[in-house]
Specification:
mainly alpha; 78% helix
Length: 224
């Protein structure tokens, strides 16, 4: 049986598609979809950089720069964010898939399909960041879709706000989806799957907080 990857079809007919993926002996369009998603991530991060999201370090010193120097700084910022989008997409697609493959023995390509859905949802979340930043003036870590906005009322410690800001409604849906997906292919106990998926996300939230915390210092060092 050959399965053709159609991501949005999985979202709207999940049970049927999970069964077809489980029975599939060949998978088509996998790498085409991977490339499309990676290019989408690069384009999205470049667009957000063009709009100025996350460029506070550059904006704060704009008055002290000449026009050519300012434009050069913005260009390098866009290039850096585009590269980050590339690394981000490849990490989401391939690293969790490998970890879950080692843990469960589910075929690697079938786990990549799971991560393709995860990446689509994460990119959609980042699209929603744009109006939240532009119209509400709230950065991603204090988005109303995350727990970071609650943490910001309790503490001013940046890394704690970044950590809870990484825990969003989208992330909770992704956890549920990954558990459901893996359970469709594995006979492991449900509790064991839940623990490992949540643990992986916990490590991901820690990594996000660390990356965001150090990113501000890196930008300040480059453009400050």
């Amino acid at each position: 049986m050959t399965y053709h990857v159609h991501l949005f079809k999985i979202l709207f007919s999940m049970e049927d598609d999970l069964f077809r993926i489980q029975k599939a002996e060949r998978i088509q369009n996998l790498w085409k979809v991977n490339i499309l998603l990676i290019l989408s991530a690069i384009g999205l991060y470049a667009w957000m950089a063009f709009l100025g999201l996350g460029s506070e370090s550059i904006s704060s010193i704009a008055v002290s720069l000449t026009q050519p120097a300012y434009e050069t700084s913005k260009l390098w910022f866009m290039i850096g964010r585009s590269f980050y989008g590339l690394v981000f997409a490849m990490f989401i697609l391939f690293v969790p898939s490998l970890l879950f493959y080692l843990l469960t023995g589910i075929p690697y390509k079938k786990l990549i399909i799971m991560q393709q859905i995860v990446l689509v949802v994460m990119l959609l979340e980042r699209v929603l960041w744009v109006p939240i930043v532009i119209f509400a003036g709230l950065n991603w870590q204090v988005s109303p879709l995350s727990f970071g906005i609650i943490a910001s009322y309790i503490t001013e410690t940046p890394w704690i706000i970044y950590f809870f800001g990484a825990i969003t409604l989208f992330q909770l849906w992704i956890i549920w989806f990954q558990v459901k997906y893996i359970m469709s292919f594995s006979e492991m106990k449900k509790a064991f799957i839940w623990i490992n998926v949540v643990l992986l996300h916990f490590l991901g939230w820690c990594l996000t907080a660390l990356t965001a915390f150090t990113d501000s210092y890196i930008l300040s060092g480059w453009f400050g």
